[in-house]
Amino acid sequence: SVGRFLFDSHWEVLGLDKSQLPFLSATELAALLKSREVSPVEATEAYLERIPQVDPQLNSYITVTAERAIEAARKAEQAVARGDKLGPLHGVPISVKDVQMTAGVRTTSGSLVHKDRVPDADCAVVERVLAAGAVMLGKTNTPEFGLIGVTENRLGGPCRNPWDTGRTSGGSSGGAGASLAAGL
Predict the structure, then answer these.
(1) What pTM, to 2 d.p., does this model score?
(2) Which of 43, 49, 134, 168 would staple 89 via disulfide (CB 3.0–4.6 Å)?
(3) Is 64 helix (H, G, I), strand (E, B) or coil?
(4) CB under 8 Å, gap of 24 or more: what pairs does 143-149 form?
(5) What does the pLDDT look like over 82-141, one tens digit per residue?
């Protein structure tokens, strides 16, 4: 991996371990990525290792795009190695609410009607965050068409609050909120 040679992994010196990376703010993580104290692949792997451990209890994700995320993280590392101009979200892992269109990635809008829809193009929001350098981890759960105040739909189980899984995570961005609070 490029990260083993290019990045110094000073985050260990800072008293962090890889499992803590998903709990940093986006600005903290972006600063560590920019300073080469953390590599985009290390950051992305930290999230992708945590998602299958925690998300089965939360249902915050509808679709995880692990292969795509690792590929984007590797490209982000290569851009750093080349000295390319980096965007403000360069290498920062993010999720995208499942009502936002994503090229080549299933976008259900929380509806059985669209359970197999795969758009050809990104919506403007997704286009902009990816252009800023973000690494998409996947699509977060939403109520059908994002229209109700709890994140429940017929595609899977209801999204749960990570602080108390007996409660809802709310809606319409319940999956996004639960994934953020749980470090996913």
Answers:
(1) 0.91
(2) 134
(3) strand
(4) 143/110, 143/171, 143/172, 143/174, 144/109, 144/110, 144/111, 145/99, 145/109, 145/110, 145/111, 146/97, 146/99, 146/109, 146/110, 146/171, 146/172, 146/173, 147/172, 148/172
(5) 989 999 999 999 999 999 999 999 999 999 999 999 999 999 999 999 999 999 999 999
